[in-house]
Design brief:
Elements (H helix, E strand, L loop, with lengths): L1 H23 L2 E7 L5 E7 L4 E7 L8 E3 L7 E6 L2 E5 L13 E11 L4 E8 L1
Parallel strand pairs: 1-7
Antiparallel strand pairs: 1-4, 2-3, 2-5, 5-6, 7-8
Length: 124
């Protein structure tokens, strides 16, 4: 009987420790369209997951999406009036992963001719 109780207690401790560890790595990201244009087919890939945020109205926020991990910047693809716009990171070498929490990626158009975007991050 003592062995069964010990096993049950150890199992419970391991289960709770695993649940706590997972919560420590949760990064929630929403997107702000900081432009006068409608963003369509907005894809964000942080290397810790990819989400399609769909359409984002001008000067509007999306709902938060959960990522396994993220950095201060990410791969972003979107369309404005059928034209593709991109933000493509070179790499994440030397970058620190974001701590668990809630963040906003603020997207702005830099150049309509080249389809260039900028991304600013804000901790919420």
């Amino acid at each position: 009987m003592k062995i069964n109780l010990t096993v049950l207690i150890l199992f419970t401790i391991v289960l709770l420790a695993g649940a706590c560890k997972k919560a420590d790595n949760e990064v929630h990201i929403r997107v702000l369209n900081d432009s006068p244009d409608l963003f369509e087919e907005v894809i964000v890939n942080t290397s810790g997951g990819e989400h399609n945020y769909g359409e984002i109205e001008p000067n509007s926020y999306t709902a938060y999406q959960l990522f396994d991990f993220a950095y201060n910047y990410a791969y972003v693809r979107l369309q404005i009036d059928g034209k593709d716009f991109f933000l493509i990171p070179n790499d994440y070498a030397g970058e620190q992963m974001l701590r668990s929490g809630y963040y906003t990626y603020i997207l702005r158009v830099v150049d309509y001719d080249t389809g260039a975007l900028t991304l600013e991050i804000k901790k919420d």
